[in-house]
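Here is the promised in-class demo. Please do not try to memorize the tokens; focus on the logic of going from shape to residues.
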């Protein structure tokens, strides 16, 4: 049986990319190496004293776990040494990290990332992930990266992807020519093409939302949930509720099976919880490339939102096209209440 590794695939597809000079190839390849290193640590996390809280809070006041810090360090190192990336915006760093040194300053790309998403699930052996978005810088090559390089609409992404550290480890990415998934074969240490040209079903029967926040949901979201739970055989309702609490894992399941993930505004998070730059935008790029839809629930496409700040939060409605459109309709009928 012939196996196509991630690196072979990236090189094969290099000519698809409008600026193909091997730069993006090297960048993606460095991300995949860091992913393997993080995967190794995730897998042995229960065995060594790496679990538990590191005692420092990130800028959003959430307590960082040790693996968050470890993953952040690994990806920063890999991106810096790729020589293609001049700076990183990470969930774990308040400001951008602009790489010093002539080689890095000559990099044409910046990366926004959540190095370890779903961190509340780390110490219970539940799937977690890494999410990344790659942009071409707008500041001049040869200089330090600037914040403006990262504050671009999601529609400007040149590539985006995620790694899911689950029952198996996968990397899924797009460069705007469809979505492909690679499963890590631990026996050879390579990501191998396992999910070619992923297309998300236009409709599905799964809805994913933290229903613990129900009382404070906008009326339109409450009504949509009631719709999901009502019996109606022609539309396959009631739907099934599935919520892991790791965006990557919830998204990945719904991408393959068909479903909708919603993180609306709540009392605790009045503008939504998930971060535009490194959680919503990359997932929105991927779902659109797979034939699905991503919006803020108020008919604004996620990829069209112009970011004002690095850690901006937005509501997220994402998944199968028909389901997202239907949920938007429920929200539109009730306004923002
Ligand atoms: P994190 O980046 O601190 O891990 O938070 C993001 C996570 C997402 O993975 C997940 O979809 C969401 O937070 C779950 O939030 P909640 O626990 O409020 O349902
Ligand atoms: Mg995180």
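The designed amino acids, position by position:
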């Amino acid at each position: 049986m012939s196996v196509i590794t991630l690196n072979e695939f990236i090189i094969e597809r290099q000519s698809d990319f409008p600026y193909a000079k091997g730069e993006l190839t090297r960048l993606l390849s460095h991300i995949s190496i860091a992913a393997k290193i993080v995967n190794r640590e995730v897998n042995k996390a229960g065995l060594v004293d790496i679990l538990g809280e590191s005692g420092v809070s990130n800028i959003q006041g959430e307590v960082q776990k040790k693996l968050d810090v470890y993953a952040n360090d690994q990806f920063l190192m890999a991106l810096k040494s790729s020589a293609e990336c001049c700076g990183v915006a990470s969930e774990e760093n308040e400001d951008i990290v602009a790489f010093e040194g002539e080689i890095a300053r000559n990099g044409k790309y910046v990366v926004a990332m959540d190095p370890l998403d779903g961190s509340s699930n780390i110490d219970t052996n539940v799937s977690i992930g890494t999410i990344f978005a790659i942009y071409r810088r707008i500041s001049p090559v040869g200089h330090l990266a600037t914040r403006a390089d990262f504050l671009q609409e999601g529609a400007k992404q040149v590539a985006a992807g995620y790694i899911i550290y689950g029952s198996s480890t996968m990397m899924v990415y797009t460069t705007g020519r469809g979505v492909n998934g690679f499963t890590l074969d631990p026996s050879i240490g390579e990501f191998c093409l396992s999910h070619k040209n992923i297309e998300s079903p236009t409709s599905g029967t799964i809805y994913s939302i933290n229903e613990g926040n129900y009382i404070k949901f906008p009326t339109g979201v409450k009504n949509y949930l009631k719709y999901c739970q009502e019996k109606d055989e022609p539309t396959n309702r009631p739907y099934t509720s599935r919520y892991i609490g790791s965006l990557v894992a919830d998204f990945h399941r719904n991408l393959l099976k068909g479903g909708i993930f919603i993180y609306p505004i709540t009392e605790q998070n009045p503008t939504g919880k998930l971060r535009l730059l490194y959680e919503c935008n990359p997932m929105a790029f991927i779902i659109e490339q797979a034939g699905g839809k991503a919006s803020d629930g108020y008919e604004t496409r996620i990829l069209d939102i112009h970011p004002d700040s690095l850690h901006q939060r937005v509501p997220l409605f994402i998944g199968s096209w028909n389901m997202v459109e239907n949920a938007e309709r429920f929200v539109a009928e009730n306004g923002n209440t």
